[in-house]
């Protein structure tokens, strides 16, 4: 199977910065990039006219909570009248609210709702998505969520990376008992059934302490799960230092992370994942320290954090805009963050995240003639085609 992407105005290869190649074409064979440059189609093949368009690696959304029951627009309305996310959580809303709705949904219901959400991701150019569990909060319910994520992984048109998330302590359960259940029952069962690639912990004052997070992550590491951590979102919890000490693949959120912890993460090779959609959605004042990330030359990734409480944004082009508007990231930093660095945050940099010979042919063709318009034309539906392993999985004029 061969595909020719003809005459793109710009190809963003993501090699050496964003690696713009102007007025060029791409030849794809058997789902892999074969040639990039001023080419003529070497043989009869499916041709996509990319004249006047930017071609970019498919977006990698490296942090989502895409599987859940119900929605929380009532809490959204409460927040608009001044109640904070943390106060709603303490009063039994927030994550606990979604846990109730997820537990009452069947596997089949969760699967079909999530499949619809994945169709939205594809329309917005995402070709790989990480999905966390974390709304079950018991052995059987977390396993149920992970089975749904794994069924989606088998059936969806894009790659799905499953993560077990120790999200928070369930209502009416003692902290110590739940942490023991995670360590003695959940993680061994997940490992034995091969239900997740990663283990993640929400290390913050409304969830697990640094000590509890360390116990959970050490167990996961011993079971050969790769590690992620939700760190320093609402307070300086020490999560980023823990990520460095345990050499987590990534640390996510990082609003309260200090300069010292940013340096420690960088030295330990931890990829920071920033989630500007959450800052926008929750209208948070505290922002990650972009200047220090830049100074340390950290490979910063950005992702949507799609979830019912703190970000209902499917679109990575919108997340790219928000990274620029809200975090002051440069356009090039945001674009590399949504592709190459996000692939690195999922330990997939060898196969996806850039347009290079031999890599998987995941692409998005955007209806703009230069890359600066991607964040600039905020909110515009600019994805013309989404291509996964050389196959068109979304096309506006098809
Ligand atoms: O990443 N930080 C914790 N968890 C989610 C929010 C989950 C929810 O509110 O349902 C997040 O923002
Ligand atoms: Fe999250």
TrEMBL record:
* A GO cellular component entry from the record: cytoplasm
Q: Which residues form the Amidohydrolase-related domain?
A: 54-392
Where does this protein chiefly localize? Answer: cytoplasm
Which residues of the sequence carry a binding annotation for Zn(2+)?
63, 65, 230, 305
Protein residues bound to 4-imidazolone-5-propanoate:
72, 135, 167, 233, 310
Q: Tell whether Nucleus is among the UniProt keywords.
A: no
The note on the cofactor says: Binds 1 zinc or iron ion per subunit.
Broadest EC class assigned to this enzyme: hydrolase
Name the EC number(s): 3.5.2.7
A GO BP annotation: L-histidine catabolic process to glutamate and formate
Cofactor(s) it depends on: Zn(2+); Fe(3+)
| Keywords per UniProt | Cytoplasm, Histidine metabolism, Hydrolase, Iron, Metal-binding, Zinc
The residues that hold Fe(3+) are 63, 65, 230, 305
* Entry-linked SUPFAM superfamilies: Composite domain of metallo-dependent hydrolases, Metallo-dependent hydrolases
Q: Annotated Gene Ontology MF terms?
A: imidazolonepropionase activity; iron ion binding; zinc ion binding
Q: Organism's domain of life?
A: Bacteria
Known catalytic reactions: 4-imidazolone-5-propanoate + H2O = N-formimidoyl-L-glutamate
By its UniProt entry, which PANTHER family does this protein fall under?
Answer: IMIDAZOLONEPROPIONASE, IMIDAZOLONEPROPIONASE-RELATED
- Record family assignment: Belongs to the metallo-dependent hydrolases superfamily. HutI family.
Tell me the HAMAP family matching this sequence: HutI (MF_00372)
Protein name (database record):
Imidazolonepropionase
Q: Coding gene?
A: hutI
